[in-house]
């Protein structure tokens, strides 16, 4: 059933042309929020995604191809959201990349790119979204961290540092706006079968000479006691809750949805 709880609000979801970001964007659209998509992909497919989403949920959609590692492009995207929708009411910082290597072998440019996209971009979107949210005394900032925002894994120094940083940024944003109608929280997913994770599964299957299904099972059971992937739809439902009136006093939380990963 199509909801109307967010009707008239505008949500910007970074990295929303696939994976977790897309799942969250569609969940917010189903509640009546207008959506500004962002991310990479085939232009024709993105245009179709916009049109299909607008038609299905009776909302307005837009798209901006800002490279989230470039502050000036982020500024242009936020300006476009202001011009088109009046601004951003719901900000979901989801864009992310991964690189895996030991610290002494980690390419410096990869470190810089992971920090820029996974951490600094959220600072830039947040600083640019807050003035409108403060003027309206309403806003929802949701930072997609990771189980790696709470615990670490070897060979993921940049990702883990960025995601721990996102959890810290979330807490500061929440505290600075604690007596306003603006909340800021982090969602910390475990393994989700996104294109990013599928690459890791395929690499593991190739290296070990095992099937993709076996590689998935091994990947999950190393970290995720449930043995099941978290889905973008489940994360979308949590994002909708965090945007609701019921979550008005959920502030500065790092909410793990991880099949038991960090309970160990």
Would you mind describing this structure in some detail?
There is one protein chain. The longest helix has 29 residues, at 108-136. The protein has two domains: 10-191 and 231-263, 3-Layer(aba) Sandwich (Rossmann fold); 193-229, no CATH class. The relative contact order is 0.14. It has eight helices and seven strands; from the N terminus they run βαβαβαβαβαβαααβ. By secondary structure, the protein is an alpha/beta fold. Helix 1 packs across helix 8 (232-243) and helix 6 (195-208) crosses helix 7 (212-223). A seven-stranded parallel beta sheet has the order 3-2-1-4-5-6-7, sandwiched between helices. The termini are far apart. The mean pLDDT is 96.
What's this entry about, in short?
InterPro entries: 3-OHbutyrate_DH (IPR011294), NAD(P)-bd_dom_sf (IPR036291), Sc_DH/Rdtase_CS (IPR020904), SDR (IPR050259), SDR_fam (IPR002347). With 264 residues, the protein is an alpha/beta fold.
């Amino acid at each position: 059933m199509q909801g109307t709880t967010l009707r008239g609000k505008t949500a910007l979801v970074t990295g929303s042309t696939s994976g977790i970001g897309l799942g969250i964007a569609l969940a917010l659209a189903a509640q009546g929020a207008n959506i500004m998509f962002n991310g990479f992909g085939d232009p024709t497919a993105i245009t179709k995604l916009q049109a299909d989403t607008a038609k299905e949920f009776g909302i307005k959609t837009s798209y901006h191809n800002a490279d989230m590692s470039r502050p000036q492009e982020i500024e242009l995207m936020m300006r476009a959201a202001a011009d088109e929708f009046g601004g951003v009411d719901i900000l979901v910082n989801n864009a992310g990349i991964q690189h895996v290597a030991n610290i002494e072998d980690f390419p410096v440019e990869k470190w810089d790119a992971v920090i820029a996209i996974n951490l600094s971009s959220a600072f830039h979107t947040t600083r640019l979204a807050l003035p409108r949210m403060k003027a309206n005394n309403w806003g929802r900032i949701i930072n997609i961290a990771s189980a790696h925002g709470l615990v670490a894994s070897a060979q993921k120094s940049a990702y883990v540092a960025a995601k721990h940083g996102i959890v810290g940024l979330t807490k500061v944003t929440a505290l600075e706006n604690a007596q306003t109608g603006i909340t800021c929280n982090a969602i910390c997913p475990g393994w989700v079968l996104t294109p990013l994770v599928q690459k890791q599964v395929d690499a593991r299957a190739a290296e070990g000479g095992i099937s993709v299904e076996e590689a998935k099972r091994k990947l999950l059971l190393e970290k995720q006691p449930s043995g099941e992937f978290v889905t973008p739809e489940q994360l979308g439902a949590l994002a909708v809750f965090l945007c609701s009136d019921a979550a008005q006093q959920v502030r500065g939380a790092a909410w793990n949805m991880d099949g038991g990963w960090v309970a160990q």
